[in-house]
Amino acid sequence: MRRALTLVEVMVCLGVVAVLSSLAASAVSSAVSASRAATCAGHLRQFGMAAHAYMSSNREALPAAVLFEASAGSLRQVMWDHVRRADGTIEPGPLWTGLDRPFHVLRCPCCIPSASDPDASGYNYNTSFLAAEGHYPVVDPDGRVRSGWEAARQGLPPAARRRPSETALFGEGGWTGGVNRFMRAPGGTVEGDLPTVYAGGQSFRHLGSTNVCWLDGHISSFSAPCAGVHATPPLTQGTLGFPRNGFLSEDDSAYDPR
């Protein structure tokens, strides 16, 4: 005659099953996260290759982060990842010709676009030091409309890029409002506007790590978010969302190539 399991034995068995299920679920979740991080790193590698191809065809100039072009009474917004025409439609941006399957690559697998910017890819671009940043068209004293590159703050010239392996080019954008497409250096020495700077951080969305494409084209994972030299609760918690988002260095050293 077989002995029935006692209540204690049943509870022990259920506990063991629950622990094993939890470990299996955790392992699956970690594997999925690792796969997404690897996919993201692959996207960033393509961005780096596309940027270098662009430089080869444009006297070592990098694409602009954003330009506003006025023509025939309409305004065209040219961003590094796509172009938005006056009617709101999207067309290929300056890096698209160097990307394989651009609509797929221009989206981080862990990115959830914000309602305010549904076209955001989840990736950002060093706007503080490397990329030109345009302003809305202006009228000069002669009555001529200046737009596009003429109305832009230029990035540093090629001769100033002395530390390519230590200078961030592309990364994964993040702030409390979701994602961003313009990477900002924490010192605020270029923008002079700390809320804008702290809205240009990096998202450490891959199990506490973020992927970075450096100016020389190599990719690395970074897992130590920095709060920046101007850290205050309104900026770090209210704007940046630290430590879920952060900077790559406390000062501008990871962004300024000089």
Overview of this protein structure:
With 258 residues, the chain is α+β, with helices and mostly antiparallel strands. It has one domain (36-246). The protein contains four helices and 15 strands. The protein has a five-stranded mixed sheet, covered by helices on one side. Strands 1-2-3-4 form a four-stranded antiparallel sheet, with no helix packed on it. Strand 13 and strand 14 form a beta hairpin. Mean pLDDT is 85; it is low at 23-29.
Task: Indicate the topology.
Blueprint: H1 7-57, E1 66-71, E2 74-79, E3 82-84, E4 90-92, H2 102-105, E5 123-126, E6 133-134, E7 138-139, E8 145-146, E9 152-153, E10 168-172, E11 182-183, H3 194-198, E12 202-203, E13 210-214, E14 219-222, H4 233-240, E15 245-246
Give the overall shape.
globular
Could you describe the largest sheet, including whether it forms a barrel? 5 strands, mixed
Estimate what percentage of residues fall within beta strands.
15-25%
Compute the number of structural domains.
1
On the 0 to 100 scale, the average pLDDT is 85
The succession of helices and strands, N to C, reads: HEEEEHEEEEEEEHEEEHE
In the sheet with the most strands, the strands line up as: 11-5-10-13-14
Number of helices: 4
End-to-end separation: 83 Å
Question: Mind telling me the C-alpha Rg?
Answer: 23 Å
Outline the low-pLDDT stretches: 23-29
